[in-house]
Design goal:
3% of the residues lie in helices and 46% in strands. It is mostly beta strands and 430 residues long.
């Protein structure tokens, strides 16, 4: 069930004489204002006192309010408002009326040192909300100004040294796991050097060449030998040899007959010739029998018998004797080498035959490689006690020269400022 609050209500005159209870609320039916009473003051206190100006969104003012449109209203009917604002916003007709504030195309401006009079106005805003300042005419010149230079004092800081304690980084050993690289086998195709189009074995034969040698004659040469005499020599001998007799038994060697079958030998003749330099000779020719036709035949060796017999060597006595070699004299003589002539001839080099070479299909195999588990070790590192030193820092004094501002002249101007706005009604409590 809804709860309903009921307040005392009455005219302004009735509320003005009513003291009420402490905290009691009443409604003024003439002004639609709420009053709070304290139990001792007649009329109490209005929640919205007369003369309060509010922004309002409707076209006309509500009951108990007037539009701030500079209207002249009755001093009697709106005695409470007149008692608050008087003729500060206009005297009306000077006797029975007064004017309310005029906030049409204006905004409220607080009273202060620069604006001391209530109700003073400073123009109005146009419909475009552009505010134009008063035009400044003539030339305004600001005098030049020179400031005084200043120099700061240099500062030098004190250096400092800090000590660092010895530090040791422990050794570290990392393990690497076993790794196996797989084996790989690659195939190579068959290759034939010197094969013909049908892949039948063939040979590569080089061309023979024959060189010519011109006729060469070696001149006769005769050398002389000096006379030579070999001296005679006589040697003595005194040797005795004693005879000896040995027996030999009878021996018979059996006869033997061997058969040799028919066969073929090949006869090949090759000639090796060589180009000769002038004054030399070199001619070589060899014949080799490689083919001879022969009939079957036998070779017979008859048996041989040697009867028992003896061999006797008698004593040989030799008295002392000498062997004399007479001297030999070879008189002066000459050795003559007749001249040798080699007629024009040829040296022939036979063609060289190289048989074809075939490499059959085959494979090259790379075996797998295994690296067993192992470790990589980093030894410990020790940094001994040491110091870090920071030297003192010196900042020199900084000098700022005097700054001079020349005079500035400004000609006549005006400023137009756009004022962002939203148009509302201003109302005043009566």
């Amino acid at each position: 069930m809804a709860t309903q609050l009921q307040f005392r209500r009455g005219t302004s005159a009735q509320n003005n004489s009513y003291t009420g209870l402490v905290g009691e609320i009443t409604l003024d039916t003439d002004t639609n204002n709420i009053r709070i009473h304290d139990g001792s003051t007649a009329g109490g206190a209005e929640i919205i006192p007369a003369g309060t100006i509010l922004a309002y969104g409707a076209a006309s003012a509500p009951t108990g309010y007037l539009l701030c449109d500079n209207s002249a209203v009755s001093r009697t009917t709106y005695a409470r408002l007149f008692a608050v604002i008087g003729t500060g916003y206009g005297v009306g007709n000077g006797s029975t009326t007064f004017n309310v504030p005029d906030l049409r195309d204006k905004v409220p401006l607080g009273k202060g040192t620069n604006n001391t009079a209530l109700g003073a106005t400073n123009g109005s805003a146009a419909a475009s909300a552009v505010l134009n300042s008063t035009t400044k005419t003539g030339v305004t010149t600001a005098s030049n100004n020179t400031g005084t230079g200043t120099t700061g004092t240099g500062t030098t800081g004190t250096g400092t040294s800090g000590n660092s304690q010895a530090t040791t980084v422990a050794t570290n050993t990392g393990n690497a796991t076993s790794t196996t690289a797989a084996s790989n086998t690659g195939n190579a195709g068959s290759t034939t050097v010197g094969y013909n189009a049908t892949n039948a074995p063939s040979v590569v034969t080089g061309s023979a060449t024959t060189g010519n040698s011109t006729s060469t004659t070696v001149a006769t040469n005769t050398g002389n030998s000096q006379s030579t005499t070999v001296a005679s020599n006589t040697g003595g001998s005194g040797v005795t040899i004693t005879g000896s007799t040995a027996n030999s038994t009878a021996t018979t060697a059996a006869g033997n007959t061997g058969a040799d079958g028919a066969g073929d030998l090949t006869l090949t003749v090759y000639t090796v010739n060589q180009t000769l330099a002038a004054g030399t000779k070199d001619v070589t020719q060899a014949t080799l029998v490689t083919n001879v036709t022969q009939t079957n035949h036998t070779h017979s060796i008859p048996s041989l018998t040697v009867n028992n017999h003896t061999h006797g060597v008698g004593n040989l006595a030799g008295s002392s004797h000498s062997h004399s070699i007479p001297s030999l004299t070879v008189n002066n003589h000459s050795h003559s080498i007749p001249s040798l002539t080699v007629n024009n001839h040829n040296h022939s080099v036979p063609a060289l035959t190289i048989p074809s070479l075939t490499v059959n299909n085959h494979s090259h195999s790379i075996p797998s490689l295994t690296v067993n588990n192992h470790a990589h070790s980093i030894p410990s590192l020790t940094v001994n006690n040491h110091s870090h030193s920071v030297p003192g820092l010196s900042v020199p004094g900084l000098s700022v020269p005097a700054l001079s501002i020349p005079s500035l002249s400004v000609n006549g101007f005006s400023v137009a400022t756009t004022l962002p706005s939203e148009v509302v009604q201003y109302i005043i409590k009566t």
